[in-house]
Amino acid sequence: MKLIGSLTSPYVRKVRVVLAEKKLDCPLVLEDVWSADTSIARSNPLGKVPCLVLEGGEALYDSRVIVEYLDTLSPVGRLIPVPGRERAQVKTWEALADGAMDAGVLARLEATWPGRAEGERSPAWVERQLGKARAALATMERGLQHGQPWLCGAHLSLADIAAGCAVAWLEFRLPEHAWRDGHPHLDALMQRLMQRPGFAETRPPQ
What we know:
- This protein folds into two domains: 70 residues, 3-Layer(aba) Sandwich (Glutaredoxin); 112 residues, Glutathione S-transferase Yfyf (Class Pi), Chain A, domain 2 (Up-down Bundle).
- The protein is built from seven helices and four strands; from the N terminus they run E-H-E-E-E-H-H-H-H-H-H.
- A hairpin with a 5-residue loop joins strand 3 and strand 4.
- The relative contact order is 0.15.
- With 206 residues, it is mostly helical.
- Helix 1 runs parallel beside helix 2, helix 3 packs antiparallel against helix 4 and helix 3 packs parallel to helix 5.
- GO terms for molecular function: transferase activity.
- InterPro entries: Glutathione-S-Trfase_C-like, Glutathione-S-Trfase_C_sf, Glutathione_S-Trfase, Glutathione_S-Trfase_N, GST_Omega/HSP26, Thioredoxin-like_sf.
- This is Glutathione S-transferase.
- It comes from Oryzisolibacter propanilivorax.
């Protein structure tokens, strides 16, 4: 089994953190999906990472599918509860975090993609996407305001991993927006997460 991805993708980082938490060995094969000679379409016709290639050659994508599969491979550190309300809560937090990343990526592409001339960029579109990211972070902050260490109670779950990857990516790619300001509980969550090897070792290169 191998993971195709990049060192800066927050979606790839989510998978890598899950691999570390589950203590699963899986080599990372670096791929630049923006390169003219990228080969990612051989494994994922959508041309996106992460993509998990299984031993028989079958490929899994996107990150939500991959982490759910990985959580079944080892009993160590269960990250997604069994079907029921708790599972739905964890998956909803993951969807919120992924949505914040989606919005941040769209905002950054609109502002920086070299395929678009300066006069073709839409500040209103950028602001709309950043508004979604801000709303997601505010929701995460409220979810932590009652003093519990993790989003879904006393134990780390996929909810925290997804949220941490989202916040870290927004801080990495859009530092001018100071995401930690006004989010003390979310900041504390990030500090807890960075004490875990899976997060510390997957920090994107500066």
